[in-house]
Design brief:
Elements lengths: L2 H40 L4 H36 L1 H5 L1
Helix pairs in contact: 1-2
Length: 89
């Protein structure tokens, strides 16, 4: 197995990880900014107020995008398993 092939597989795996985590990270970022703006405007500095909406947004994003993420990761794993005989040589 050549080094270029290994680097290509690792690159695809990292791209997959970034692509799968992006919706949850974006939801957490948007919720965090919204809560920060709300806290700044109202002068409320409570850690629980900052955590709960962010956690809820991440959970909702995960629940909504889970079927898409599962198809994406399953397709990647299936393609990797299909290429396994070529990778062993």
């Amino acid at each position: 197995m050549s080094e270029a092939l290994i680097v290509g597989i690792v690159r695809q795996a990292l791209e997959m990880a970034v692509l799968v985590s992006a919706p949850m990270l974006a939801a957490g970022l948007i919720a965090g900014v919204a809560v920060s703006v709300f806290q700044t405007v109202t002068s409320i500095q409570d850690n629980v107020l900052a955590f709960i909406p962010r956690a809820a947004a991440i959970f909702v994003a995960f629940a909504l995008t889970f079927p898409w993420m599962l198809r994406l990761v399953s397709g990647f794993a299936e393609a990797l398993i299909r290429r396994l005989p070529d990778l062993v040589r």
